[in-house]
Structures are given as structure tokens and as C-alpha cells.
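Reviewer 2 asked us to include a model.

Predict the structure of this chain.
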Amino acid sequence: LSLTGQISRQTYNILPKAMRYEIAPAELHLDGYQVFKKGINEAGNHGLVIYAANHMDSTELITDLRAKEILWLRIRLLKGESLTLGCFYRNHNSIPENNVEINNAIRTIAQNASNKILIFGDFNYPSISWQTENTQNHA
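Predicted model (C-alpha cells):
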């Protein structure tokens, strides 16, 4: 996923990536960007990366939420506003307890975020029909 655009006259560039192999820190470096990462090279995790342009006031949000493979980032915008980003990876074999924790994480951040929220990633819900806004099972 690559996202580029304008928010309150500030340019943002965000590139999340799920990692599946051993990766060296130098491989994640991009000139002009801060690298925020979680779960890189950890057993059982795919890992997440968000790149934020250096001129952005960006901070990783550390939570005590138990859901695995979620990376939260807050970007300060103009006029005191902020954008909270949530980058997710949900394994297609995710257990029901992790699904509940993902929902709890989204709910908690939504209730506590000060302004705007953008949630993105790979949720691996293949049974969702976006045309009918329905699902075949209760994943």
C-alpha cells in the first residue's frame, strides 16, 4: 500500500509493508523518512513498517493492547489537529481471541484519538463481499 496526498497543506507519504523474512535495519532505510517498525524479525510475526516523511511531526503510540501485529502512529497536523494511523496485519489463521483483540484495539483507539483516524493493512477476511457488504461467516 502506498499513500501520498495532502493533509492540511502538509505532504505525507506512508508505506506499510508486511515482512516475511530476516531483514537488516539498513534494508529499511529510506532517505528523507522516519522508519517506524514493529515485529521485524520476531518469530511468529510478519512485521509492520510505516515510513513518514522527516518533515512530519510523527510519534509511535505505545499501547497496552494485546492484539498482535498492530503499529499505531500519531502525526501532528496544522491547527492542533492530529492523525492517528493504525497499520494492521491479521494472519489468515488468526484465532478468535486475536480477532476480539483487534476489534478492541480499534475501538479503544477510536474512543481516545483526538482527531482523525486512518486504519489500513491486511485483515485477511476473504469471505467479505464488498459489493453486498456482507460475509459468509462471522470471521
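Residues 73 and 117 are 10 Å apart (CA to CA). DSSP finds two helices and ten strands in the chain. We have added this to the supplementary material.
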